[in-house]
Amino acid sequence: xxxxxxxxxxxxxxxxxxxxxxxxxxxxxxxxxxxxxxxxxxxxxxxxxxxxxxxxxxxxxxxxxxxxxxxxxxxxxxxxxxxxxxxxxxxxxxxxxxxxxxxxxxxxxxxxxxxxxxxxxxxxxxxxxxxxxxxxxxxxxxxxxxxxxxxxxxxxxxxxxxxxxxxxxxxxxxxxxxxxxxxxxxxxxxxxxxxxxxxxxxxxxxxxxxxxxxxxxxxxxxxxxxxxxxxxxxxxxxxxxxxxxxxxxxxxxxxxxxxxxxxxxxxxxxxxxxxxxxxxxxxxxxxxxxxxxxxxxxxxxxxxxxxxxxxxxxxxxxxxxxxxxxxxxxxxxxxxxxxxxxxxxxxxxxxxxxxxxxxxxxxxxxxxxxxxxxxxxxxxxxxxxxxxxxxxxxxxxxxxxxxxxxxxxxxxxxxxxxxxxxxxxxxxxxxxxxxxxxxxxxxxxxxxxxxxxxxxxxxxxxxxxxxxxxxxxxxxxxxxxxxxxxxxxxxxxxxxxxxxxxxxxxxxxxxxxxxxxxxxxxxxxxx
Length: 527
Prior knowledge:
Blueprint lengths: L2 H22 L15 E7 L2 E3 L3 E8 L5 E6 L2 E2 L7 E7 L4 E11 L2 E14 L2 E4 L2 E3 L4 E6 L6 E8 L2 E6 L5 E6 L5 E9 L2 E12 L2 E4 L2 E3 L4 E6 L6 E7 L5 E5 L5 E6 L5 E8 L4 E11 L1 E5 L2 E3 L4 E7 L5 E8 L2 E6 L5 E6 L5 E9 L4 E11 L8 H10 L30 E5 L12 H13 L4 E7 L6 H21 L7 E7 L11 H7 L1 E7 L1
Parallel strand pairs: 2-8, 10-16, 18-24, 26-32, 34-35
Antiparallel strand pairs: 1-3, 3-6, 4-5, 4-7, 7-8, 9-11, 11-14, 12-13, 12-15, 15-16, 17-19, 19-22, 20-21, 20-23, 23-24, 25-27, 27-30, 28-29, 28-31, 31-32, 33-36, 34-36
């Protein structure tokens, strides 16, 4: 009768003992022996190489130990000694060693373990290849003070200076392909002070150049001249990112070759020397059409568009974008021609559209309209008309270039002069003396006809970047303007424009004569 209660008490006792046993048992922990010294698992700087003023982080990791008493870096205590992992920011102004010291207590003695890391701080640098062959590529790289507010690079050739890149990052690189000895000047603005760094690239004798842009289906010409004493000269065609095809070997040190690329193609001239190989690249862009023309018009002046289209076009037409729509202004065009169009908007975008059997292509050209530029004709009449259309003119302080077009009477090109061009040597900004006689005739006419004005348009060849071409064409136009002003022609009778390489005389520069024809300043005399 009383057995069951006794059994229940026994079970209760077993349960209590079991519960006490569970309470005493603990989850496994990292074993820390108080008298075991710690070890430095890692101590490094990230990054280890930096530029003066750049920040880095010292990172460390220790083995667990209860005996750690203090952690120091270069004699200064780390704030949180209990951390076996940590990091500390540094901003170094020179290369130096950083030492991690970990103090620990073993029995009654204090010990220390140490580890060093070297942080390399470079001064701001600007560097690259020192010498290349003409047609070869070089790289320039830089890293400057992080506090710089502006970074830009100038290109200096034979004392002619050009801004080629501005608003650059504080660390970067560019690929360049100078064709003459060229000095690159890195300008760094810090606290309103400009610090300059220079790097010169010397160009060896020779070149690899040719047609830069060709219509699909037409031939391009590659031209080269390289230095002698080479084991071999090879011409390769880069088929894709991974494959090149050897077109010819054992080329002469001077020559040319016609090619017919199906798509835009990189051609490589490999110069094999005794101990090394130099590879020069020339790219030929394949397009379905050349489409260009005037980039600016004034007043009621019409813009002239020109084009040349590859063979096989089924339909060619030109559209103008207005209010988000493309309006056809001329259809069923011939493969080559020109068209005068109205440029009524401030920004006028024209497109040439080409339909082939299995594809379509289109190219755009933008014409800017500059309102109010040149006033010409009888002074009394132009004053009256100027007032009637609400123009306000204060000599050279009027809009952008000075005079305004009369909206009713556009200026007439003086047939006696027409258009004539001043040509320039490669990368030159000097007007040769042989052109002074032509300019002096213009001056003589302008002195006799005080209502006449001159339009000066600078052009470049097809070499270099679009921005560089615009800059040098602008400087050439300004040279002609300064010459006329030095002879007494007031600035408000001179209009300057820079077209860069957008309106070449030759779309393909097969030789220096054609390239020189593209490097020009066009002078137009209006009355």
